[in-house]
Amino acid sequence: MGIQIGKVTTRNNVFLAPMSGVTDEPFRKVAHDTGAGLVVSEMVASDALVQERRDMVRRARGAKQLQPFAMQLAGREAKWMSEGAKVAQDMGADIIDINMGCPARQVTGGLSGSALMRDLGHAVTLIEATVAAVKVPVTLKMRLGWDDGMRNAPELARYAEASGIAMVTVHGRTRCQFYKGKADWNAILAVRDAIKIPLVANGDCNTADDARAMLAASGADAVMVGRGAYGRPWLPGQIAEALERGTGGKPLGLSQELALLLRQQDETLALYGATLGNKIFRKHLSWTVTRLEERELISDEAAASHRTALLGETDNAAVTRLLRSIYSDFPQERLVA
Predict the structure, then answer these.
(1) Which residues are catalytic?
(2) To the nearest whole number, what is the mean pLDDT of the chain?
(3) Residue 212: which region, alpha, beta or left (left: phi > 0; alpha: psi -120 to 50)?
(4) Residue 289 lies in domain
(5) Of 147, 170, 286, 296, which shows the fewest CB atoms inside 10 Å?
């Protein structure tokens, strides 16, 4: 069942998280078409978007094709967040998401992302400027806090709601944890108690059982799938269907999985060009092999061999043949786990 974000209704309550270098337009298209309730762009630097920097414009693509579509903006200056939000709205974004959760040093070092959780006053000025600039709903993604001594997500969420934010997403780790340890879904419950707007829980959602446990522990209205979707952009839709039949995507056979991967490859090459597209798609191929290994469809030795072959191949037609060859050995009636 979908949730209401301002005037936007999502298709279900399992979303694809924004992940830089991962959830590009080809990845988002597969996730959307296989039943994700909401897809979010890669993190887009607000000032670079306004200045029409090519890579940022490319990251922002997909509006009007993928509905609902959220574009995530990052920045540290109210002027650029405001102007970036206007550009995002003009590009057709249904929702604008503000990034206050990215833990990467190159982002926090510039006082953006989760670094903003150390200065809630400044964080609120950015939120207010973004909300005031557009008519579409604005949402906020954050972490539990900067570190264990500063777990201020409930406080920021309250300020955000008062400033007009329509939905809050919380990753169940602090910034200083990065991705170590286990996401603390129970800690997200304090945010649920602090706000009335929709809440999304994020962090370590890999299966439908995880999603059920996250919802129960956090009190959230929806879950967001991040790294669990590596190598399988169809995962959010599969989880949504498992939670509530008819709301996500139908179970996939291995032949369908292969078709989606080949489609993703084609669209990646079309977006970036043959040479860069080959390099970018390599990480997805590595994750694909890992997923096959996890399901015990291939042995550790075969996985290592396939990775070496796929990641070392610069001829895109040969990559396609290798993928087809790998999947041709599997019983096609097997369902994706």
Answers:
(1) 102
(2) 93
(3) alpha
(4) 254-328
(5) 296
- 275 and 132 together in one domain: no
- On the question of pLDDT at 75 being above 80, the answer is yes
Residues 6+ apart with CB under 8 A from 19: 42, 226, 227
In sequence order, which ranges of 7-77 are alpha helices (DSSP H)?
25-33, 46-50, 54-59
Q: In terms of domains, do 160 and 302 share one?
A: no
For residues 148 and 184, is the Cβ–Cβ distance under 8 A? Answer: no
Can you give the C-alpha Rg of the chain in angstroms?
19
Q: What are the backbone angles phi and psi of residue 233, rounded to the nearest 5°?
A: -60, -10
Question: For the segment 191-229, what is each residue's pLDDT rounded down to a tens digit?
Answer: 999 999 999 999 999 999 999 999 999 999 999 999 999
- The CATH number given to whatever domain includes residue 182 is 3.20.20.70
The verdict on residue 248 lying in a domain is no
* Residue 81 forms part of a structural domain: yes
Residue 97 contacts residue 141 (beta carbons within 8 Å): yes
Alpha-carbon distance 201 to 279, whole Å?
Answer: 32
> Quick one: pLDDT band at residue 182, thresholds 50, 70, 90?
very high
pLDDT band at residue 337 under the 50/70/90 scheme: very low
Q: Would 55 be classed as within a structural domain?
A: yes
